[in-house]
# Entry
Amino acid sequence: MSVALLCAAVAAAGNVLGALTVVWRATWNRAALESMLAVAAGFMVSVAIVELIPESIARSGVSAGSWILGGYLVVHLTQHTFAGHFHFGEERHRVSPSVSTAALAGLMVHTFVDGVAIASGYEVSTALGTLVFGAILLHKVPEGLAIASMFVAAGAGRRAALVAAAALGVATILGVALTGWIDPLARYGLPLAAGVSLYVGASNLVPELHRLPRWRTAAAFFGGCGLFLLARAVVFQ
Ligand SMILES: [Zn+2]
Ligand SMILES: [Zn+2]
# Structure
């Protein structure tokens, strides 16, 4: 449990780091950020399909499928139905403060489940917890950067942009802390996390890759899948 909380704290720091690059106007190497998105996409899709989905079905039976679907749908509902606009990467569109606030609320549901995923992974085994943590850590910097740049695009100050990213991190820590206390999360946290990871990897991140340079992006995306398989071989040996 304490290891999971520590992981959540590190992940939360990733959110803030992403926001700091916006606030400091760091001259982000665009190619490096795009490659990071692609690696995270490959890693998340892999951990969802190779570990979280089969492990969920092994533990909860075929009823896990409904929870996986539920996790998948909840991200679409909160990030794309209630919130009018959200995508990973730096926000370059003009958005209104209500749009950025709605995006933050929606993204906090997802980052809460990031925490549920870490806790549920460690509940199964240290090896699985480590893999899930890796998948979450890889997309935390882009996540913090996305929300902070969106707040800036909505005319918010630097402090508000940082607070928004910190709120994402706090939601992840709460996700870990509350998983053991809320019965459905303790029981179905793993399939829920599987659906959310699948959505974030395949439906949030992968579509971002379609507009990027083809071969470099492909190398990073397949590299992310390869990195997952390598990490898996190491932690399960
Ligand atoms: Zn946009
Ligand atoms: Zn996340």
